[in-house]
Specification:
Blueprint lengths: L1 H31 L4 H6 L5 H11 L5 H13 L13 H36 L4 H15 L2 H15 L16 H35 L2 H8 L4 H38 L5 H10 L3 H29 L7
Helix pairs in contact: 1-4, 1-12, 5-6, 5-8, 5-10, 6-8, 7-8, 7-10, 8-10, 9-10, 10-11, 10-12, 11-12
């Protein structure tokens, strides 16, 4: 247990320079973006004197690194600035809207993982057959379709033509039940998970094919074990390490893809909030959302590294 704690601590400390680089990159992007926050706050009729005075009050006339370290110090204390458009503090606003994004992302992740692993297993078990080739074509299509285009297609088919599922929002007007929420989750989750599920399926197929060639699989079959037990207990367990790697990386892509999916389906998460902030040139809001998503992605990678130690006994806590 001590070694495990030391391993986790070492990996966490290794994230500090990564997070530092993330904050520097996020601030640099917004610093170099066109537009003057002072002019946006005061409006188009503001005088040059009032704009200059506000820039001085906000510290926008300071050198780049002084502005960066001031912003970083405030961010570490939970002060991420104030939204220009919504007139509220950024950090509590992002936390409040992140719940909807997290729900959509986790649902999409479950869809992607379950379908991706299932399709990969079947494809590997039926290798080079008609089923395998058909599934490979399906995986290729799922990987190539842009999430926003697939989302619109699902809205047209299931929402407008068949009229069986809602196409926008998190709840229907006047409703707040779990059943209504589940119906609203189906289409955006499918749109979000298609590409990620395709990547997981390809990795699962590749890993399973490699494991099927090992001697312990032939030994398990020679002992009279059922094919279901051989595939799920012996083959999948040993093929899971590279699959976990891909899953950990794709969760971050799910967070990124949620930005487009949320806008298409009018989902009230940080993706919709971010696009609205970009259109309104709300620099503090966009900066806070990018920082939040990037930090979440880095922490997910840390969690994946820790999971390796539990899933593969060959990995030592060094």
């Amino acid at each position: 247990m001590v070694k495990l704690f030391s391993y986790i601590l070492k990996r966490a400390l290794g994230l500090i320079p990564v997070l530092f680089g993330v904050t520097l990159l996020v601030f640099s992007i917004m610093y170099l973006s066109p537009g003057d926050p002072a002019k946006i706050i005061l409006g188009p009729k503001a005088t040059a004197e009032s704009v200059a005075a506000l820039r001085n009050d906000l510290g926008l006339d300071e050198p780049f690194f002084k502005q960066y370290f001031t912003w970083l110090g405030n961010a570490l204390t939970g002060d991420w600035g104030r939204s220009i458009q919504l007139k509220v503090d950024v950090f509590p606003l992002v936390l409040n809207r992140f719940g909807a994004t997290l729900l959509l992302t986790l649902t999409g992740a479950v869809f992607a993982i379950v379908t991706g692993i299932a399709v990969g297993i079947v494809s590997a078990y039926k290798k080079y057959s008609f089923i395998d080739r058909s599934l490979m074509i399906l995986i290729l299509v799922g990987f190539c379709l842009p999430v926003f285009w697939l989302g619109i297609l699902l809205q047209i088919v299931f929402g407008l033509n068949l009229n069986v599922l809602p196409i926008s929002g998190m709840y229907s007007p006047g409703s707040s039940g779990i059943g209504d929420l589940s119906r609203h989750l189906i289409l955006p989750s499918i749109a979000l998970s298609a590409g990620v599920g395709a990547v997981i399926a390809r990795m699962t197929r590749s890993s399973m094919l490699e494991v099927f060639e090992n001697d312990f699989i032939r030994t398990a079959r020679s002992k009279g074990l059922s094919e279901k037990r051989v595939v799920l207990l012996h083959a999948l367990r040993n093929a899971f390490i590279p699959i976990i790697t891909v899953i950990g990386m794709q969760i971050g892509f799910l967070l990124a893809g949620a930005v487009l999916v949320e806008k298409v389906f009018a989902w009230p998460g940080i993706g919709t909030l971010m696009i609205d902030g970009i259109l309104a040139r709300d620099f503090p809001l966009v900066q806070g959302i990018i920082l939040f998503v990037a930090t979440t992605y880095v922490l997910i990678n840390l969690l994946v590294d820790v999971l390796y130690a539990f899933l593969d006994p060959r990995i030592s806590y060094k």
